[in-house]
Amino acid sequence: MDTGSVDDVTGLFKSLDGFAIFEIAVIFVFALAVVWLTQRVLPWVASHLHGKRRLYTLALVPMIRILVLVVALVMIMPRIIEPTLQNMVATLGAAGLAIGFALKDYVSSLIAGVVAIHEMPYRPGDWIEVDGSYGEVTHIGMRTVELVTNDDTVIWVPHLKLWDNLIHNANNGGPSLMCIAEFYTQPEADAYQIRDALEEVALTSPYLQLGKPIAVTAAEQPWGTKYRLKAYPIDPRQQFQFITDMTARGKKRLMELDVRFAKIESDEAYELKH
Length: 274
Description:
Blueprint: H1 3-10, H2 18-46, H3 51-80, H4 85-102, H5 104-119, E1 127-130, E2 133-140, E3 144-148, E4 154-158, H6 159-163, E5 168-169, E6 179-185, H7 191-203, E7 215-221, E8 224-231, H8 239-256, H9 267-273
Antiparallel strand pairs: 1-2, 1-5, 2-3, 3-4, 6-8, 7-8
């Protein structure tokens, strides 16, 4: 390497004295502290809120984290690199190439995470299903999304994997989430009587969100009739209690009406028997 090339490289960087190193350390520590506090305080505040206010509070966490990290980087860079356009372009270009080759998948997930925060196909507080796993989005990191399932299993899913799969979002950033309880009866049962009975079951549930529609649908199957009771809980986190309540009390009410339940069979099994 000739002397000119060495001078060009060394000219990119400033000579760091003790005070400059102290400034960089303070900025770095302060940024980490703000991010740490944000990730602890805002979820705690959100846990005491309901509806849209809870979802909006949780959605602030990843946005504040990215904003703090960007501001910290902007403040640190001029203290390390001579702030000329040529130096900045050369440094960012070299860093981009190195990161691109060394951390291709990691960087792809980071980019997908930034796009996800902008487009918001899922937010903290959303209930999503990805690749057979269903749970609440509790944390959106730079590279991964944290899901907590109904049995308190924590699943970390890379943003890149989410973008390569279909995402089923049950409430899409809102406080309303439809719950469905299913019932299977013999075909001779009175459909109108069953519809009225199931609507009453939903209306008397302590988990019901008033003002939202209640619907009962019926579909004929080879083995009988399939009924689906659809309603909305007060809080999406109550969905499993709500479904259990509607199912238990719905079965009890239909038994009081002497409704005979059907044994579910696959189409293939039904055809073999008949």
